[in-house]
Amino acid sequence: MLTLKAAGLLDVDSGEIIRPGVIRVEGDRIVGVGGSADPSAETLDLGDLILLPGLMDMEVNLLMGGRGENPGLSQVQDDPPTRVLRAVGNARRTLRAGFTTVRNLGLFVKTGGYLLDVALGKAIDAGWIEGPRVVPAGHAITPTGGHLDPTMFAAFMPGVLELTVEEGIANGVDEIRKAVRYQIKHGAQLIKVCCSGGVMSLTGEAGAQHYSDEELRVIVDEAHRRGLRVAAHTHGAEAVKHAVACGIDCIEHGFLMDDEAIAMLVEHDRFLVTTRRLAEAMDVSKAPPVLQAKAAEMFPKARTSIKAAYEAGVKIAVGTDAPAIPHGRNADELVTLVEWGMPPTAVLRAATATAAELINATDRGRLAEGLLADIIGVPGDPLSDITVTQNVKFVMKGGQVYVNKN
Fold first, then answer.
1. Class of the 2-52+365-404 domain?
2. Omega of the bond prior to 39 within 30 degrees of 0, cis?
3. What distance in Å separates the CA atoms of residue 99 and residue 374, rounded to the nearest whole number?
4. Cis-peptide, bond into residue 289, ω within 30° of zero
5. Strands 133-136 and 99-104
6. CATH fold of 55-359
């Protein structure tokens, strides 16, 4: 048994720092919290650090971005092995930033049908490489020309790099059923769907609904019958309302939500994943003028909609949309949320306990006996200075220490 001794630890539920911070770990689990350290037991003294549950990012794409990528050419240059190898570095940076669980939320690249995020998660779980626990979505389900149809981003001519139904391009109920079933068959643990346009869409307004209600209900039906939740890339208020009415479990982004859409999220007990940092940090300077204009209109609305959602009582979970912000800079999202009006306690809960609820994980998200020993240490009180989460000094995942800079 190993005892961690620190200046304090965060009780996520009460929103208080308990001092001192003493946690006993055996194997991959927490077996005791609080009290005093046993001088006869093996003790790791972490000095002035404050211990937190491992943070969680509910929207990343570890197979995209990172060192060596040329975003303008990656669709035609990066084969699946290259993407997986680059993801090794992205996963390592994410874990060492204190994020011990992520949802890899939808491949939208040519893979030949392979679910690269499933393979990445298996390699991490096997201990071959360092990285967070990965909850994979496989390929994002999107209509032809939808926001997550990758040939749309580059405005390719017809016939260039077209994706298959298995790779998520699905139209009509029969193709959609096949696409969803394919992801589930090969290891997806949730389904990602493109419900509306986006900032970088070349095919229409960001808020425009892409799938019909009938098609959305089919996606939900297939996923829910197999016990999986559905996450929907959705910006527009009307698209959010339709997604919620059709049974979508989680809205990604929601920049353009209005009060009615927010009220529906609360009434139906649905989740919202934040991704607000990209509204400040995403570089659109080289994008076509029409996309720059769209970003200039949308990004300011992201600030007001997240504050309104929090004040209304929406279940909020932290997500970054990395690499929209760089892998390893995930905690920047927490800082932005505090700057935009959410209390630090609520933000930390969104990155831990609420995120765990979103993925139906009862074994993480808190520092409590019986839960996974996913524990990080930061150099100060995050309730008074959330920026300490950008400087993680200690990372343990499953009882194994990956970072100890104390």
1. mainly beta
2. no
3. 9
4. no
5. parallel
6. TIM Barrel (3.20.20)
Q: Are strands 394-397 and 375-378 parallel, antiparallel or unpaired?
A: antiparallel
Express each pLDDT in 50-94 by its tens digit: 999 999 999 999 999 988 888 778 888 889 999 999 999 999 999
Domain segments of the chain: what residues?
2-52+365-404, 55-359
Residue 212 pLDDT exceeds 70 = yes
Query: Which structure tokens are listed for 312?
Result: 């209304």
Q: What is the pLDDT of residues 282-298, one digit of tens each?
A: 776 667 776 677 677 77
Q: How far apart are CA 246 and CA 249, in angstroms?
A: 9
Provide the token pair at 16.
């208080």
Contacts of 354 (CB under 8 A, 6+ apart): 271, 315, 316, 317, 365
Q: In what side-by-side order are the strands of the sheet with 42-45?
A: 29-33, 21-26, 2-6, 42-45
Strand pairing of 250-256 and 271-273? Answer: parallel
> Buried (b) or exposed (e) across 351-368, using 16+ Cβ within 10 A?
bbbbbbebbebeebbbbe
Tokens of residue 406, six digits: 């104390």
Gap between the Cα atoms of 161 and 259, Å rounded? 40
pLDDT tens column, 90-137: 999 999 999 999 999 989 889 999 999 999 999 999 999 999 999 999
**Measured CA distances, 75 to 152, 232, 274 (Å):** 11, 23, 27
Contact call for residues 165 and 138 (beta carbons, < 8 A): no
Q: In angstroms, rounded to a whole number, what is the distance separating the alpha carbons of residues 347 and 340?
A: 11
- Give me 1's structure tokens: 């048994």
Extract the runs of DSSP E, i.e. beta strands, from 140-278. 191-194, 230-236, 250-256, 271-273
Q: Which helix (H) or strand (E) holds 233?
A: strand 230-236
Does the pLDDT at position 378 exceed 70? Answer: yes
pLDDT at 200 over 70: no
Can you tell me the distance from the alpha carbon of 355 to that of 337, in angstroms, rounded to the nearest whole number? 15
Mean pLDDT of the chain: 93
> What's the alpha-carbon Rg for the chain, to the nearest Å?
21
Q: Who's near 149: CB < 8 A, 6+ residues apart?
A: 108, 142, 143, 163, 169, 194
Kindly report, residue by residue over 26-55, the tens digit of the pLDDT.
Answer: 999 999 999 876 777 799 999 999 999 999
